[in-house]
Write a structure and sequence with these properties.
The complex is a heterodimer. Chain A is of the alpha+beta class. Chain A contains 16 helices and 17 strands. Chain A has helices at about 5-55, 65-130, 150-155, 160-165, 175-190, 235-260, 275-285, 285-290, 300-310, 360-395, 405-425, 435-445, 465-485, 520, 530-540, 575-580, and strands at about 135-140, 145-150, 195-200, 210-220, 225-235, 260-265, 270-275, 320-330, 335-345, 350-360, 430-435, 450-455, 460, 490-500, 505-515, 545-550, 555-560. The longest helix of chain A has about 70 residues, at about 65-130. The two termini of chain A are about 85 Å apart. Chain B is an alpha/beta fold. Chain B has four helices and five strands. The chains are: A alpha+beta, B alpha/beta.
């Protein structure tokens, strides 16, 4: 029995009721008619009796009158007969009508009783079914007020059937979800549209679980909403799993986007399926454009072949390793990259996909190359120094000289060389300020420098020039000390220099001029090592000039050479990087 | 210095020297002279030495690779082209020498000048 059947039965009962009332009225009318007929019959009967008793039939003064009365009586009798017949007919039809009505009422009553029984059964079945399904179910009236819940609802929420049957289900909805639920439910009820929401419902244990709540309006034949049915499905585990998945996804993305490497995924043959945002930011190649073999376009043209070859040789279970330059959008050049990928192996041992990273090793390679060069230059420098020491040791030997003098000279020269090395290696790529170099040498030998004047512009010397010049100053100072220019009150030393242009080069011209030294003491001076250094080594190694002259008053020495750019060997760059002409 | 003319072997030979270190250059030149050879140079610059290859037609050479501006193999290449035997006298290790010069004799600095003289003599008198 469905709603339509019940409505039809109700309609029929209504009709029967109307018919019954009409029949009753007809009955009453017929009864009234019969009463009137009976009255008239009674009247006519009395008239007849009176006439029969007062006037004997054979007496005839009033024969005509009597015969008139007889005629009237006869007519009345006939009328009575007709009325009686009519009454009988009316009685019969009334009886019949009543009988039919009784029958119909009886039939309908039976039908209704059957329908009621069926309804009772289907309601019981309905409840049984609603308690079978895992969902929590409810029913509301057309205004959305709850009228019924299935047992599972009560079991889950711990609500009492009677007391809570009409209280709002939203009392067990999580406070945070309540406002949204109410608004959505009101909207659904007003518009008569299906309702669907995910929210948390409090269980009897006080804990909340996630549910999907769906409700559909139930309409009558005229399309009017008569009630609502709702189903509340437990989706807690799915929801929690989904949230965990989303968190995992978020963590994965954070990780992928946080690492300095460019991360990507590919299937066999190096066909990319996904790349991290860094890839796009770095190369300027969109994620979509990089898919399949699109990523190759970011590779240096000379490295694409090797990359494809590596992919064609990629074997399951063996990581992929490609060295290739990748275009850097911001720097507008290719940078060296190490690209690696690991196969993801499926259950049957097949390669599901490849997870890959591309790591910028440009700086690393640059540093490695630089380190190699520096090491090589350091080695070169150490060997040159040893060569130099060996040469100085041999050249410091003067025939007839005492071992003590020899050692003293040698120590002085080695100390001067050591001082230069200290200055040269103090800072990277730093030259040596000429004035510092001169003062260092003088301070090492002369306590009182009042008689020494030093004047000249700021000049930075390269490593080679510093080495040679420091030793030259050392020799000159040693010589001055030995022959009196530095301890005689009358004697002075004037050191000055200028930077001048010769041809296309800047030249340094340095002058060392002693004065106040007596000629006698100046004359026999011997300057073997120093003379060779100034007059031969300076021209040879510094491509300059060196002159020494003894004159009254003391020694006058001039050294001049072109100032080349700082060329400290320890900080020279690898040649290929110098060519690239790039520094961050 | 002890002069031992008896251990000569470079008589009539012109030996080019390319060496930026003055003392080494001087010592090498003395050793060549001591062995009876004549010195072409010594030169401090590759450019000058290349000119000398053409003008002086040396029989052999002692070649330094680093002249202050990084490795330079221009003279070595030129000598090879001219079939002039030569020896590297260098502060660099073998790895810094291009493989095309792998067969060229090499003496590491600091060099034993006498050994250089012996090796040079042997090289030029080989045949």
């Amino acid at each position: 029995l469905d709603q339509a059947d019940i409505a039809r039965l109700l309609d029929e009962i209504e009709q029967l009721h109307t018919a019954l009332e009409a029949s009753t009225e007809e009955n009453n009318r017929l009864l009234d008619d019969r009463e009137q007929l009976l009255d008239r019959i009674a009247t006519q009967s009395r008239v007849l009796q009176r006439a029969g008793m007062s006037e004997p039939p054979d007496y005839d003064p009033y024969d005509a009158r009597r015969s008139e009365t007889n005629e009237e009586l006869r007519v009345a009798f006939k009328e009575l007969q007709v009325l009686t017949e009519e009454l009988e007919v009316a009685n019969t039809s009334l009886h019949e009508a009543n009988r039919q009505l009784d029958h119909r009422v009886e039939t309908r009553t039976h039908e209704i009783a059957e329908a009621n029984a069926a309804l009772t059964i289907s309601e019981a079945a309905f409840r049984a079914i609603t308690d079978l399904v895992p969902d929590l179910l409810w029913r509301t009236d057309r205004t959305g007020v709850a009228r019924w819940y299935n047992r599972r609802w009560y079991d889950y929420t711990g609500q009492e059937p009677k007391r809570d049957s009409t209280t709002g289900w939203d009392s067990v909805v999580h406070p945070r979800d309540r406002a949204i639920c109410r608004a959505a439910w009101q909207s659904a009820v007003i518009n008569g549209e299906p309702y669907s929401q995910q929210h948390r419902v409090r269980g009897a244990d006080g804990k909340y679980r996630w549910f999907l709540v769906r409700a559909e309006p139930f309409r009558n034949e005229r399309g009017e909403v008569v009630q609502w049915f709702g189903a509340v499905t437990d989706i807690h585990n799915q929801r929690v799993a989904m949230e965990a998945l989303q968190q995992g996804e978020t963590r994965f993305r954070s990780l992928v986007e946080g690492v300095p490497q460019l991360v990507w995924r590919a299937v066999d043959g190096g066909r990319w399926t996904w790349s991290s945002p860094q890839w796009t930011a770095y190369t300027g190649l969109s994620e979509e454009a990089s898919r399949q073999l699109g990523w190759l376009r970011a590779f240096h043209p000379d490295d694409r072949g090797a990359a494809r070859l590596a992919w064609s040789r990629a074997v399951a279970g063996e990581p992929l390793d490609i060295e290739g330059r990748i275009y850097h959008k911001r720097e507008r050049r290719h940078r060296h990259f190490r690209t690696r990928a690991m196969p993801v192996i499926g259950e049957n041992g097949e390669v599901v996909e490849w997870l890959g990273t591309s790591t910028d090793v440009d700086d690393l390679l640059e540093l490695q190359a630089r380190q190699t060069t520096l090491l090589s230059e350091l080695q070169h420098r150490v060997r040159n120094l040893l060569t130099m020491i060996r040469s100085v040791v041999r050249r410091s030997l003067i025939e007839g000289q005492s071992a003590e003098d020899y050692v003293q000279h040698l120590e002085g020269r080695l100390a001067a060389m050591a001082r230069t090395q200290v200055l040269l290696t103090r800072k990277t790529n730093a030259g040596i300020e000429l004035e510092d170099l001169i003062r260092d040498e003088l301070v090492a030998q002369v306590a009182d420098d009042k008689r020494v004047t030093i004047a000249g512009p700021s000049v930075m010397l390269g490593a080679k020039a510093a080495e040679v010049l420091a030793l030259a100053i050392h020799e000159l100072a040693t010589n001055s000390l030995k022959y009196g220019a530095l301890d005689r009150p009358s004697a002075t030393i004037e050191i000055n220099w200028v930077v001048e242009r010769r041809r296309a080069e800047r030249w340094l011209r340095l002058s060392w001029r002693e004065s106040g030294v007596p000629i006698v003491e100046a004359a026999p001076r011997r300057v073997g090592f120093g003379t060779e250094l100034i007059t031969e080594r300076v021209p040879y190694e510094l491509r300059g000039d060196g002159e020494m002259a003894l004159s009254p008053g003391g020694l006058h020495c001039t050294v001049s050479f072109p100032l080349s750019q700082g060329q400290s060997l320890l900080v020279s760059d690898p040649p290929e990087l110098r060519k690239a002409g790039r520094r961050r | 210095m002890i002069d031992r003319r008896s251990s000569s072997g470079l008589e009539g030979r012109r030996v080019l020297v390319l060496e930026d270190d003055f003392y080494t250059a001087t010592d090498l030149a003395k050793e060549i002279s001591r062995r009876g050879g004549s010195v072409v140079g010594p030169f401090r610059d590759v450019a000058e030495s290349l000119v000398a290859v053409a003008t002086a037609a040396p029989d052999g050479a002692l070649v330094d690779v680093n002249l202050g501006d990084g490795p330079d193999f221009a003279l070595a290449q030129r000598l090879r082209d001219e079939n002039v035997p030569f020896i590297f006298v260098t502060g660099y290790d073998a790895g810094s020498i291009p493989t095309e010069f792998a067969e060229v004799p090499r003496i590491d600095k600091p060099a034993d000048i006498r050994r250089v003289g012996q090796l040079l003599t042997a090289l030029l008198n080989r045949g």
